[in-house]
Structure formats: structure tokens, C-alpha cells
Amino acid sequence: MAKALAISVCIRCGNPRILSKSWVEKTEKGNPVTHVVEICADKECQKIVDATFAAQREKKLLQLAKKTASQPQLKINSATG
Ligand SMILES: [Zn+2]
To answer: Among 31, 51, 68, 73, which is most exposed with the fewest C-beta within 10 angstroms?
Structure first.
């Protein structure tokens, strides 16, 4: 059985990334999912990449929160009877 391991490169410096850790998660559907965490060989570079991703995630969450907040509230007509 050939295992094709995709080696990705760092989005920042372009160097091949190294395997940090991997684990298998069992799912209810039956097919276990393999999680792979790859990091840049350059620790300082990885730190910057991590910070970039964290900032992007925060931005997305903020936008999502804004969307939810801007939705008009439904008026519940409780004045019956
Ligand atoms: Zn890098």
C-alpha cells in the first residue's frame, strides 16, 4: 500500500514544511480521518505564519458577528387577546 504524503511548502518563505504531529481521529461514519500538522522548519517564520492565520480567523469571526448583529430583530406580536 503506497502512502502518498503531500509535502507542502511554507506560504511565507517557500521552504518545505516539516511534520510536527499527526493523529488519527475516528469518526462515526467509519472512515478514520488523519490529521497532519506541518510547520515551517524555521521557528521564527512559523510564528509569523501562525500569527497571520490567527489574525485572519479573528477577522472572519468579527465579520460574522457583524452580520449577525445587523440582522433585524423579529418582532413578536404578543398583544393578542
Ligand atoms: Zn517559513
So the answer is: 73
